[in-house]
Design brief:
382 residues; alpha/beta; Aspartate Aminotransferase, domain 1; Aspartate Aminotransferase, domain 2; seven-stranded mixed sheet; three-stranded antiparallel sheet; 14% strand; binds pyridoxal-5'-phosphate
Length: 382
């Protein structure tokens, strides 16, 4: 069976062959299989050296210090650690977030609410961005943390994190940013983005699933409480034997992303243009999320008069998603699309197309042709 063209890079990416190769070198007896915490022999030392080299590779992509990188099992855990870890120990903390965050942030904040933490849920603009004024207005004396994403996973729009970070720094409020959809897709620089905590994931950047990192700023010094207790790994912030193969894979993936960022952004931008150009003859197509502030590879499009579910069934030669991957199993319209003000019916007409490293010109031309045909057919049968 010929598999459909993969246009769901925002859900996950394949592991790059170069990444798979370095991972394989960290598994077997001949490889770097040791426990990075073993101090008494060369197996441990080699594993530790591999982990520290990868820590630098991940830090380099976001221009951080390697000592600011804490390994986790993925961006979900990083979000949990950042948010719960920042709030822990405060008497009556208040947290500010938005209605269109990733579930890893939304559900963590909902859980905190059940524990008695006050949470303010901001609504973003129609373009999917949260205005800094709205964040400022929400701050209270007891606000401990603001959590907002850099790039939205359903819309691809980019928040103004530099401005937000500057005002929050002045107010002494911690700022956590989920950058899982941003790293490797746009320039991310913690020197010009005054964030305190930043969640990263391996598998959105051609690394393996099950590995991520939390950036924790050293200056000014940010303190968070561990959520996983054990051997005191990662300077006490996250215990657990470090998975050398996963870490080395994420490091290699982030290094590759850094090397190719500019050309890859330009390439995806032109593929996106080809896709949109190919849909030119179709009317009633609207782009959801900011046209101006966005990453190049992600498009969320609504097709007037066509249900996304029917469209997806018709587009069996394309692997795309409606709503986020986690929400696809349910028939609820995307909370993100509702969050930017779409009516339920409108939200049911949107599909997300996400392009990536292995997407070709031919792929997007084929996609545009298929979409045009299926949308026309569905509109005609109505
Ligand atoms: C994928 C994603 C996550 C979750 O990352 P995992 O590594 O799969 O846990 C969190 N936030 C955003 C914005 C994402 O896109």
């Amino acid at each position: 069976m010929k598999k459909p063209v993969y246009l769901d890079y925002a859900a996950t990416t394949p592991v790059a062959p170069e990444v798979a190769a370095v991972m394989a070198d960290c598994l077997t007896l001949e490889g770097t299989f040791g426990n990075p915490a073993s101090r008494s022999h060369v197996y441990g030392w080699q594993a530790e050296a591999a982990v520290e080299a990868a820590r630098r590779q991940v830090a380099d992509l976001i221009h951080a210090d390697p000592r600011e990188i804490v390994w986790t099992s993925g961006a979900t855990e990083s979000d949990n650690l950042a948010i719960k870890g920042a709030v822990a120990g405060h008497q009556s903390p208040h947290v500010v977030t938005s209605m269109i965050e990733h579930k890893a942030v939304v559900d963590t904040c909902k859980w905190l609410e059940q524990q008695g933490v006050e949470v303010t849920w901001l609504s973003p603009d129609r373009d999917g961005r949260t205005p800094p004024e709205r964040v400022l207005e929400a701050l209270r004396d007891n606000t401990v943390l603001v959590s907002l994403m850099l790039v939205n996973n359903e819309l691809g729009c980019v928040n103004d994190v530099a401005t937000l970070g500057a005002v929050l720094r002045e107010r002494g409020v911690l700022f956590h940013v989920d950058a899982a959809q941003a790293a490797g897709k746009m320039p991310v620089d913690v020197r010009s983005m005054p964030v305190d905590l930043m969640a990263l994931s391996g598998h959105k950047v051609y690394g393996p699933k099950g590995i991520g990192a939390l950036y924790v700023r050293r200056s000014p010094d940010v303190r968070i409480a561990a959520q996983m207790h054990g051997g005191g790994h990662e300077r006490g912030m996250r215990s657990g034997t470090l998975p050398t193969h996963q870490i080395v894979g994420m490091g290699k993936a982030f290094a590759l992303a850094a090397d190719t960022l500019d050309e890859e952004m330009a390439r995806l931008e032109s593929l996106r243009a080809v896709l949109l150009e190919g849909l030119r003859d179709l009317d009633g197509v609207t782009l959801n999320g900011s046209e101006e502030h966005r990453v190049p590879g992600l498009l969320n499009l609504s097709f007037a008069g066509v249900e996304a579910e029917s469209l997806m069934i018709g587009l069996r030669d394309l692997a795309v998603s409606s709503g986020s991957a986690c929400a696809s199993a349910t028939i609820e319209p995307s909370f993100v699309l509702r969050g930017i003000g779409l009516e339920d019916a409108e939200a049911h007409r949107a599909l997300r197309f996400s392009l990536g490293r292995y997407t070709t010109d031919e792929d997007v031309r084929f996609a545009a042709h298929q979409i045009t045909e299926v949308v026309r057919r569905l509109r005609n049968v109505r």
